[in-house]
Amino acid sequence: MAEFGEDLTKEFRRVPRVTALKSGIPTLARLASLWEQGFRRWNPKSVESDRPAAAMAVCLAIANPKGGVGKSLTTLMLADGLALAYGARVLVFDADPQAGITQALLGIVAQDDLDQRQIGLGPLLRKWSQGQEIDLASHCVPAGDLAELRNRQAGRIDLIPSNHQLLGEIADIEHAARHIRRRDRLDILLAGALRSAFRNVLPNYDIVLIDCPAGPGPLGLAVLRLAGHILTPTSLEANSYSTLVGFLQFILDDDLDLASQVKVHPLITQYHASNTLQRQMLDHIQQGYYGLNAIGRPISYATVLQGAASHPGAGSFRTAREKYGNSLADVLGLAHAVAQRISSGG
Ligand SMILES: Nc1ncnc2c1ncn2[C@@H]1O[C@H](COP(=O)(O)OP(=O)(O)OP(=O)(O)O)[C@@H](O)[C@H]1O
Ligand SMILES: [Mg+2]
């Protein structure tokens, strides 16, 4: 643990200076003060015991209808970063039948075994489509590969997994659900069922991260309706920017009142600092020209991040430095930026 503390202290010096968090989640605010002290007095046990018994978790969806913009990678970095830097208890909900974050947090082999044991998004949706109750606690499994989080005293990641076999089943599940509930919109009904299912597990966590599927559809829209905040990763290519604008417009225009429930935070990902155009765009975004309210610090394009998303296999652990290399500063900076946004209410 001493090595972990020293290593992170060095990393913290590389991310922009932290100002105290004002209010909001007690755990994150408490940990922010430890961050201020450069983690010199880092003590996982004290963090654990200072927690209020039943604080409700914040729900953050990582969403963009455009595929391949880094939603799943951002979810991974954020889960690791919040658990590492803030000792946060993180629940990741893989709401994507592509199961990208499940593979990154559990490895390739685990998902089929879980599906056979009726655990995860597929079994959960099948039950719902047949009109049955969802017991979410039985779908939350321990996940992650960071050596620092192995003892799970401070900082913990659980996962509601997905399974790529669901890709072939999703149309049948929607069809079955429509058969039982003919009149109402499926996304509203599913959001209602998930919201009440989540109520039982939320006290166990500080934050729920929802990795959303690309494209439109009832599942993606239902999980957006659970969130208080939406983090929208986007690259700076022209078509990414237009998708982002369309997505923001959709949230504002939604006649079912999505805009009044959520705050949207665009995040620039896959940033190439060597590209002059991207540098100029980032400069403009940071100065607020486009009114995007984007998170100030971009995630650079780095091949080490692609490796980070490949899980080393069940029972294998690696240190945060081994996993993220020089991009560890991006992981911690992202966790800090998001914690700050959430606790300031902005
Ligand atoms: N900052 C980055 N640097 C390097 N590679 C990245 C970065 N962000 C994303 N990638 C890579 O781009 C690919 C797409 O990323 P990812 O799967 O996270 O996107 P996504 O938005 O979740 O995609 P989908 O819409 O298909 O779910 C992956 O191979 C990922 O490793
Ligand atoms: Mg994804």
User: In the CATH hierarchy, what is the class?
Assistant: Alpha Beta
Report the CATH superfamily: P-loop containing nucleotide triphosphate hydrolases
What is the structural class? Answer: alpha/beta
The hetero compounds bound to this protein are: adenosine-5'-triphosphate, magnesium ion
Our Rg estimate from Cα atoms comes to 19 Å
Largest sheet: 7 strands, mixed
Distance between the termini: 34 Å
CATH architecture: 3-Layer(aba) Sandwich
The H-and-E topology, N to C, reads as: HHHEHEHHHEEHHEHEHEHHHH
Please provide a written account of the structure.
Helix 11 links the parallel strand 6 and strand 7. The chain is built from 15 helices and seven strands. It has 346 residues and is of the alpha/beta class. The chain has one domain: Rossmann fold (3-Layer(aba) Sandwich), CATH 3.40.50.300. Strands 3-4-2-5-1-6-7 form a seven-stranded mixed sheet, with helices on both faces. The chain binds adenosine-5'-triphosphate and magnesium ion. The site of adenosine-5'-triphosphate has 19 residues, from helix 4 and helix 13.
Secondary structure elements and pairings:
Elements lengths: L1 H13 L11 H11 L7 H6 L8 E5 L8 H16 L2 E6 L5 H7 L3 H7 L4 H9 L11 E2 L13 E5 L5 H15 L5 H14 L7 E5 L6 H7 L4 E6 L3 H16 L9 E6 L7 H11 L16 H6 L11 H5 L3 H16 L3
Parallel strand pairs: 1-5, 1-6, 2-4, 2-5, 6-7
Antiparallel strand pairs: 3-4
The structure holds adenosine-5'-triphosphate (ATP) and magnesium ion (MG).
